[in-house]
Amino acid sequence: MGRWEPDAAGRLREAAMALYTEQGFERTTVAEIADRAGVTARTFFRHYADKREVLFAGSEELSRHMLDALAAAPPSATPLEAVRAALLAVAELFDGRRDFSRRRQAVIAATPELRERELHKFASLATAFDEALRERGVAPVVATLAAETGVAVFRVAFERWVTEPDEPDLAELMRATLAELAGLTASAD
Amino acid sequence: MGRWEPDAAGRLREAAMALYTEQGFERTTVAEIADRAGVTARTFFRHYADKREVLFAGSEELSRHMLDALAAAPPSATPLEAVRAALLAVAELFDGRRDFSRRRQAVIAATPELRERELHKFASLATAFDEALRERGVAPVVATLAAETGVAVFRVAFERWVTEPDEPDLAELMRATLAELAGLTASAD
DNA sequence: CCTGCGATGTCATTGAATGACATCACACGT
DNA sequence: ACGTGTGATGTCATTCAATGACATCGCAGG
């Protein structure tokens, strides 16, 4: 480690979250974030590719966790059952982080640019799901649909989790949302 | 209209498509696009909010068309049946535009920034679907799921349409994809 | 003929993002 | 203990997206 305060990336993340919350994403400059973190703007870009990415650092961990769970599902599992396992496995990652998640979602919801980036992350996740399912031998189109649907369930359940006033269980919301999905196609062709 | 060549927005769109195709999105500057269209860079931003938006001009028309079809579905239709009507209705908008769609998709696929914007457009569409379904009296969570699923079907079918070598019928692909969706949840809980 | 309005041009500015190069403390081998 | 290299950072310069303020000009309508 260098001659400076350690964990510059962490300090930058904290500073960005605080400033985005206080004054909004657009009216926060990278220079401000860097100042508060005690580094220069150039250093900000050495840790995060752009001004948005600072809020999406943990997303690879999320993907990895879900893909591990998906890979661990028995070969006999249907595509949706495998997806279900991945969804339930990832729920535990958010244990005790509901407050942080809510603050983060508030910032993202308030900023179109950040919503775009979030969508991109979810799309990457869906693509990864898609590929993983195909490697399990699932037919291409079915794999894509299962992946997209699975991500949609994640988003719906997650949104309920951060929105509802009382503290619900994320895994339980995942199960409930999956159940609603099953009901959706029951009566249509 | 003014003293200049008419349809500046159209010329800017053509110029942008051409340059994005020739040299890629990132290596194309707004100044170049404006030059080729015979206007100044400032004028570019009067017609399009940013460098990406020039490729997504027709998306409101798309939304409108689908929402009209959704509103026209009989009240007795299930959520997914209403979504199905919207999907089939919009297919005709793409009649004869497959070549253009392919070129456009090629540019978008090659550029992460453009993929993000595309995702945002789809998300807006899903939100509009969601609201329209709720206005039909569909329960909130079910409406969201139906909307997200419907958009996923659109994307899958559209991707097949621009990807497959022989010229398939988009509406037919929509039906086929919906059928696969129905099969997906048949065996899972 | 005049006048207002709309579309454009011109000018200036901010801020994101990136490349090139300098710097400096710590770790490591000798 | 003494170089020395390496990695994280600072400094400087630059490009380009995006936006605000103001001028211009010609057509439409009175």
Describe the structure.
Two copies of one chain form a homodimer. With about 190 residues, chain A is mostly helical. Helix content of chain A is about 70%, strand content about 0%. The first copy, chain A, has nine helices and no strands. In chain A, helix 2 crosses helix 3, helix 4 (about 60-70) runs parallel beside helix 7 (about 110-135) and helix 5 (about 80-90) packs antiparallel against helix 9 (about 170-185). The N and C termini of chain A lie far apart (about 60 Å). The relative contact order of chain A is 0.11. The mean pLDDT of chain A is about 95. The interface of A and B includes residues 155 and 183 of A. Chain A binds a DNA duplex (30 and 30 nucleotides) through helix 3.
List the helices and strands and how they pair.
The structure is a homodimer of 189-residue chains.
Chain A: H1 8-23, H2 30-37, H3 41-47, H4 59-72, H5 79-91, H6 98-109, H7 112-135, H8 140-163, H9 170-184
Helix pairs in contact in A: 1-2, 2-3, 4-5, 4-7, 5-8, 5-9, 7-8, 8-9
Chain A binds a DNA duplex (30 and 30 nucleotides) through helix 3.
